[in-house]
Every structure is written in C-alpha cells, then in structure tokens.
Amino acid sequence: xxxxxxxAQGSSAIIGNIVEERSVNLIIIDNSFDSEQRIVSAMxxxxxxxxPLRVEDEEDLIEAINSQPPDLVIYFNGIEDxxxxxxxxxxGGTPASKLSRxxxxxxxxxxxxxxxxxxxxxxxxxxxxxxxLLLVISRxxxxxxxxxxxxxxxxxLQQTECxxxxxxxxxxxAIAYIHEGMHVYSNQSYLELFGITASDELExxxxxxxxxxxxxxxxxxxxxxxxKNKTDIQxxxxxxxxxxxxxxxGEMELSPAYIDNEPCIQIIIRKENAxxxxxxxxxxxxxxxxxxxxxxxxxxxxxxxxxxxxxCEKSEITAVMMEIQLDNFxxxxxxxxxxxxxxxxxAAAEILNKNIGEKDFLARYNxxxxxxxxxxxxxxxAKKLAKKFHKIISNLIFNIKDNSINTTCSIGATLIDQDxxxxxxxxxxxxxxxxxxTEQGGxxxxxHEPEKGELTRxxxxxxxxxxxxxxxxxxxxxxxxxPIISLHGDTKERYEVFIRLKNVAxxxxxxxxxxxxxxxxxxxxxxxxxxxxxxxxxxTINQILNRWKEGYKTQFFLKLSAASIKDNTLIDWLTYQIxxxxxxxxxxxxxxxxxxxxxxLKHTKELSLxxxxxxxxxxxxxxxxxxxxxxxLQHIHADYVRLDPSLMEDLAKNTHHQExxxxxxxxxxxxxxxxxAQHVPDAASLSILWGMGVNFxxxxxxxxxxxxxDYDFTEM
Length: 716
Prior knowledge:
disordered N terminus; 4 domains; 22 helices; Rossmann fold; ten-stranded mixed β-sheet; Beta-Lactamase; alpha/beta; five-stranded parallel β-sheet; Alpha-Beta Plaits; single chain
C-alpha cells in the first residue's frame, strides 16, 4: 500500500488517499519489444505495477518461471516453433505456474477465440483494442487472487480434516459415520463398544444391524425424521446389539458431518450410565475449586453450609462458621499490584489449609476473605480457633521483590445448632460479626449472639409452608423483570424474570415484598419449589402472549430449581403449553446454575436437549467460578453462559478477573455460545466487558428488577 494524493487512472482501488498497488509478475511471449512496452505502459495507467519478462521460446519460458513464477502470461499468436498449446502445457507441468492465467493476443484479428479457449487460454484479445486487453487483465488478476485463496483454504481444510480424523481416532467417545444407512467409518472406541477387532469388519455394515430387533422400527422412523427435517443434533435412547447377540442400553446422538467431501451422519453412542457417576464426580470437583488458590470456592462453601445446617437441625452435630478477612488488603494490593497481591492470597490460603482439622472446611469466600466451617464446636472452641488463625496470619511474612508483606486478620463467627435458620441468615449473622471485629481495629474476633425472637430453621419452614400455600392459591406472588442488554447492537427485548412474595398482613391495605432468597430455600426444603416454578412459568407465558399481541417480540429468561430439573412432567407440560398457546419460537429460555447442573448432570443433559427440540433457550448460570468450566459444555447443550457474579468484583482493577473473562468469552465464541455478564456495577466495567467481547449485560447499574417492561433496548 502507498500514499497518493492524485487518483490513478483506470481501475485501481482507492480508499481515501490510499491506493492499493496491484503488482503483477508478467511474462510476455512475443518477438517484439514494442508490444512489451505498450502493455506495461497501459497497465501502469490502469493502476498495475508490472514486473515483465519477455520470452521467445520454451527454454526462455522455463527459465523465466523458475526465476519469477508468473501471475499472467500474455501470448502473441503467430510465433514460429512455440505454439499456444506448448505454452499451456509448459505452464501446467510446473507447480509454481499451475494457476497462472494465459491471455492470447492477436495482432491480425485472424485467430479463433474458440480454438484459443480450447487450447487453454482464458481469452483471446485483439492487440488493436488495448482497453479490452486491460479489462481482461484486471478480470484474470482478480480470478487468480481468488484461486490462490481457495487453494490456501483447501490446504487448510485438509490439515483441519487430518487433525479432526486424529481426534476422532483417539476419542474416548464411540463415534461412527454412516452414509445411506451403512457404516463408512468407526473409531477404536466404537469398535471396542461392540467387541469388534478391526474396522474392516464394520465398514459396509448396515446401522440397523447394531440395533436390537425390537427397536429397529423405532430407529428407522427416528432416522427418517432426522434426514427429512435436517436438524442439527438429535438423540435417541435405544437398545443396541453386539455381533455376539449381547444387548445393551445406550444413547445414540446424531449430527450432520462430511467424509471425503460427501455428506453423511455422525453417530456418537454413549452407553447407559457408563462412567456417568465418575464423570459427575470429576465435573463436580472441577466446579467446586477456586481457580486462583486451588481451595474450594464460595458456591461450594454455601452448598456445604446448607448441608451442615441440615445436619445440625437433626441434632447430629453442632458447628461454627467463620469468615476470615485479611486486614488492610487494599493497601497490600496498592503496594504490590494486583498480580503479586493474588500471590499473597495464594500463600494465605495454603498456610490456612495446612492448619485446619481433617473434617473442617476452608474455601475462598470473597477476594480477600476465607470461609471456614468446623464441626462439634461451641463458643469457647470458636474463640480458640480464631486465636489460632490470628497467629497463623500474623506470622505469615510474604517476600516479593523488595517488599516484605505482613498483616493480620479479622474474624466473624456464627454458631450453628438445631435452632439455626437457613443459610442466608447464617451469612448475614457472620457478616455482622465480622463488621464488628473490623470496627475494633482489626486482628479481632466476634462471635454472633442470637437475638431474642430469631426464628429457628423449623419455625421458618413452618411459617413459609402456610404462607406459600396461600400465595399459590391466592396469587400472592408478583413478577419483576430485569433487562438483559446487548453490547453489540442487538435491540431484541430480553428480560430475566424474578419472583417476589407479597407479605400480606391481616386487614392491611398494602403489603411489603419478601425477596426470593428469604423464601425459596425454605420452598426447596419443604417440596414446594416445583409448584412455585410452574406458577412463574404460567404467568410468564401469559406475558409473552400479551407482549406479542402488542407487537413486542420479547424473550424471557426463567430460573429452574433443582427440583424442576428432576421433574419428569415438566417437558410434557411445556410441550402442551407451547402448542396449545402457539408460543413463538425462542421466547422462553431457562436458567440453571452450573453447580446444580453438575450435581444433576444426567437430568440436566436430557432437559437441555428437550428444550432445544422445543425451541427454548438454555443458560448455564454462575459460569466460570470453577476449574475448567467448559468441560461441562461437552455434555450439556447450552445457548448462553452467564458469568459468575464474583467475576464482577473490582473488575476495573482486577486483571485476574479480566483475563479469566476474556478466556471465557473467547472459548464461548468458538463454541458458538453467547456470554452474559450479570451484576455489572458501573460504566467502567461495561466498557471493559464490551472490549472483551461479552455479548450481553445486566445489573442494577442499568436497571434494577421492576414490575414494568419499559426498558428502551435501542439506547445501547
């Protein structure tokens, strides 16, 4: 590219003041110097930079090709002892010039264009019409560039196919390709699944031969529907058959593929319950770990806390929860920088983890604090443990570069026994105790003392059982909506749906709202979560119908409880509602937390595929807090991943969170998944997320959940 303030003549490409230089390696076959000069001059005027070589015979041509492979060859008819046919043959036999374009030129207008084209030229032009020649040169130069791009892409495709074949051959999944009902390829895992020693034994074998005779009609109908509807991925639970007659249950997943440039169907077979427990165990472990420190993360800490509270309620144990907050951590971060401050967090996690009991539980709770649970612990023992942790942290001297870092910790603690309410109350109590400890100047511990009148867990459940039953009967719930907004110009309306419970007092004109974190844990414990989910779904479906009547193509995002994921009647109910009320496609999307999906992997996988068939969306929520979160997406179909809220903490300064989000968005994009950032706190974070390629955002900074559906999606 070069700068030019004057527009070049002819057809050179101009953008502002920049003219694209088109350099052409040119061979002119003629016995006249005048022809070369005239062509080069005309090409220069048309915006081409020609690098010409003139040849007169085959020996000259071969030498020219070796020194400068040609883009275009201009052959003048009538050269003795060197015909057009010889030129085309010479060019085609040399790899460096196999794509070169040959333009035949006639000085006397006596040659046949048909004969020239049949011989191998791309065109025949009269030398008396130089403008025609320039148009042909421009056309063939562009065709040459396109041909070279195609050749490069074909080479890249071949390399990709080789890598894919290598991956298929080494995959642990049983994979085969079928064409017109016959096996044309199978990997080693597929052969081993059916007890076959060599792939030759399977190639050409009808797919029906590996299906139990009792299931063949069902499979044939399934395959016909798949081919007819040309769907992306379809799965069928069926009974399969080994050559020795042994039958086994398995799932066949069909998807479109190509082999040797021919369309075919890829089949992946997953044996029923094969390694499912081990897979769930691995995924669960990965989702439980904090990426920075390697200890457990906040989500798993809360799950464990719920289990501990349930055990304490049965009087099986007593326990204490502590939040251990590193004092003056903001100053440490300002002194060391974020990366080295993270190294200090790692060091603190390691030393604390080495000094806890075998049955105790330590997790990273917030950026600079740790959550801790100890069993069979009273107030006196809690104080002793806190004193131990104070000493451990105060003795930790962290040397990095020219700095030696040392600090203390503040600890808030809450005792857990059979009268302890649900986990949200425990977290609130612990945070109050921690605040009291930090207000004393740090390096202190405060243990929460239950206030008079605080309800026990059993009392909370009893109260909510009656209140929720009445709410379902009398519609004492209310829906709030929060917009999910595109960062890249998509103005479609998307709202997440939230539920609130009206706190209706006797003879009261107005009622307060009870937030879901207060009543949903109790609803799950007392078995009312699925009924509440259905109420939300039904009301949302009515909202969709009203919005579409008003001309708004609104998409709603609905949270699914663990109980609803395992509810075998949910898909049938949704199918009926969608067909009966003729819901528009993709107007409903369902949200499942990553930890819930891992814990209920089989149910979640089946649900995600059913929702896809119903043209409903699926979102993995709180995504990315664990190690290697994308492993879960190998087993669950998801349209969106929504980032864990902890990644929004101090985003503008936290480079670790920024890098992690960037990795997630990049990998999600490769997998054709859309990303949503929730709890976006401010404009600075919005700008960062946009630069990282995050697709959608939501948060109170943009708009808090409210009853109205009035957000202007054209503002962004």
